[in-house]
Design brief:
Blueprint: E1 2-10, H1 16-32, E2 36-43, E3 56-62, H2 65-71, H3 75-84, E4 88-97
Antiparallel strand pairs: 1-3, 1-4, 2-3
């Protein structure tokens, strides 16, 4: 399995309502893109203070690299990314093979 970890840091202009809308839109990709095996997300709750301003975490699971590679250019994913970009201060994406 391939895990696709996405951490988001929103701009000051992104209201709580906008952040909630973007989170819901990201979550809805699982209903639109069949290659997504699972998608979960949550808000940072770490007491360590090492988040560097990243507040939202999404973990997308794919069966394999081919499924991940189909997801990346998928029109629903690309539309979401276009909608999200104006509200982002930073994004961190890591993919790894689950062991």
């Amino acid at each position: 399995m391939i895990r696709h970890l996405v951490l988001l840091k929103f701009t000051k202009e992104a209201t709580a309502e906008r952040r909630d809308q973007m989170s819901a839109a990201f979550g809805s990709l699982a209903d639109q893109i069949p290659e997504i095996r699972s998608l979960e997300w949550g808000l940072n709750a770490s007491p360590e203070g090492l988040d560097k301003g990243f507040t939202h975490c999404f973990l997308v699971t794919f069966d394999d690299e081919a499924a991940r590679d189909a997801y990346l250019p998928h029109p629903a994913h690309q539309a979401f990314v276009s909608e999200l970009k104006p509200w982002l201060l930073d994004v961190l994406v890591l993919d790894y093979a689950a062991t």
